[in-house]
Amino acid sequence: MTEAILLVGGKGTRLRPLTVHTPKPMVPAAGVPFLTHQLARARAAGVEHIVLATSYLAEVFEPYFGDGSALGLHLEYVTEREPLGTGGAIRNVAERLHSAPGDPVLIFNGDILTGLDIKALVDTHRTSGADVSLHLTRVEDPRAFGLVPTDGTGRVTAFLEKPQTPEEIVTDQINAGAYVFNRSVIDTIPADRPVSVERETFPGLLADGAHLQGMVDSTYWLDLGTPQAFVRGSADLVLGRAPSPAVPGRRGDRLVLETAEVAPDAKLTGGTVVGPRTVIGAGAELDGSAVLEGAVVEPGAVIRDSLIGAGARIGARTVLDGAVIGDGARIGADNELRDGIRIWCDAEIPAGSVRFSSDQ
Question: Which parts of the sequence belong to the Mannose-1-phosphate guanyltransferase C-terminal domain (predicted)?
């Protein structure tokens, strides 16, 4: 049995206002909390026991997922009293693991949507004899990421900070946020203090001569840390570009959940998701967008690449393009909101008062 730690303690600051009332892994993507997709993919790969390392809004997780039996899993929950960083969070849940010292433990972040072959990563770890194995992916522009070069056998040779000049870009490989640790390595992480696995644990292990193995898997990968990325990831799940056994319906141009009301002439395309108890009015056009539970889109509204929070209302003929509307917000008729604008939870914008906006 391979067991896993899932890091779900982040505050999701970059995703606000989506995360004001909801922890990032619980924001719906393709009709269910994003965490559901990760749990389902882990179970499909043979994982049976997962410990969730929680912190921000920790009380939300267990009431929804319970003991995990509905997903064929055994779930446990450990809440940090103070933020401990990625390494500290891993160490903080160690006592809930059942693995022997030499057994592999899968660790993954709660904000990465990926098509990673989990079994292949575990197999690579076992066959290479590594202490830690990392999922690496290649990106066209690695300047926003730390770089992870490897030798001809896939062994990690360094962990490099974000490159500042073209000469510093020595590889296009980056840390993709999924790891396999030998159980014994987890016990070497300092307890009861913040630790960054990326900045402290991995470089420290490498300096001590540990074997860190990289496995490049360049299938679908997306960091859902921004609202725009989150909306894209949800649409990609619906369209079938991103794999998940947890999408609640057939993949295609649209996903309409039960209890939603959609006018016959409304047009839903590009992987648009319409959540439960939502209302989509006559002639509305939605492309690549997500409308969360209980929201209302009035007739003639045009919504592209946007996310509408739970209980929000979008007025007639209003145009949204790349916008994020917080839970309970009210956008009056005949407004035009574009270019990454974020409207806070419960905010109200009168009819016809905004015609455009730059990124905020």
Answer: 252-332
